[in-house]
Design a protein that fits this description.
By secondary structure, the chain is of the alpha+beta class. It has one domain: Creatinase/methionine aminopeptidase superfamily (Creatine Amidinohydrolase, Alpha-Beta Complex), CATH 3.90.230.10. The protein is about 35% helix and about 25% strand. It contains 5 helices and 7 strands; from the N terminus they run H-H-H-E-E-E-H-H-E-E-E-E. Strands 4, 5, 6 and 7 form a 4-stranded antiparallel sheet that branches. Strands 1-2-3 form a 3-stranded antiparallel sheet. A hairpin with a 6-residue loop joins strand 6 and strand 7. Helix 2 crosses helix 3. It is globular. The two termini are about 30 Å apart. It holds the Pfam family Peptidase_M24.
Length: about 220
């Protein structure tokens, strides 16, 4: 598959609308985080997220939302959550959204902590810091997708966290991006173009049952 094939877009593609979808997706994610509270279960959180999506005028989902609490923060999107896990008084959770606004796909994710939980807070911040480190490496050096994920693995280990190799990033564009079969960012042999690829970072504590997740669109401007 050629470079062009892996970065193909539809006739409706508009970078400005990609940024609009991104901004609205972050609005949704932050609104969800503001409504999370100790005692809520993942299924209840997902029902609440649906209310947020309607309030913000989301057109549709392009992937199901994921809200993972406590030990489920170790799970990837392919894995089922341990059922009936509730958010504790001092706990960690992440939110992963794939939403469509104005015919364009947003894909964002972040990790949050409630209460007094320094270990959890350090993990959540490490995922954000690692994302920004890797994204800066792409902007400054133009590394291929494969080399970006090799770099992320090395940096996570140096920071004291386990890197989840099953999460490799992916394409988005005007809906539906899936017709273009862009594949995983972590398998891309060239430098990804701006506004087309999502960099996903998932890490875990080296020996305790929790982790953190962060993702956002790779863009030419730093966060």
């Amino acid at each position: 598959m050629t470079h062009h094939d892996r970065e193909a877009v539809g006739n409706a593609f508009n970078p400005a609308l990609m940024h609009h979808a991104r901004a609205k997706s972050w609005d949704a994610l932050n609104a969800i985080s503001e409504r999370m509270h100790p005692g809520i279960r993942e299924d209840e959180a997902l029902a609440m997220a649906g209310e947020v999506f309607r309030e913000l005028g989301m057109e549709r989902l392009w992937h199901p939302p994921y809200i993972r609490i406590g030990p489920n923060t170790l799970k990837t999107y392919r894995e089922r959550s341990i059922p009936d896990v509730q958010l504790g008084e001092n706990d960690i959770y992440f939110v992963d959204l794939g939403l469509v606004f104005e015919g364009h796909e947003g894909d964002v994710g972040d990790t949050f902590v409630v209460g007094d939980a320094p270990k959890y807070a350090a993990c959540a911040q490490a995922a954000r810091d690692l994302y920004r480190d890797v994204a800066a490496k792409w902007r400054n050096e133009g590394l291929s997708g494969r080399n970006l994920y090799n770099y992320a693995d090395e940096r996570a280990e140096a920071m004291g966290w386990r890197f989840n190799h099953a999460i490799k990033g992916h394409r988005i564009s005007d809906f539906p991006h899936s017709v273009h079969k862009g594949g995983d960012l972590g398998d891309l042999e060239h430098s990804p173009s701006s506004d087309l690829w999502v960099l996903e970072i998932q890490i875990a504590h080296p020996n305790e049952p929790f982790g953190a997740f962060y993702e956002d669109l790779l863009t030419g401007a730093a966060l």
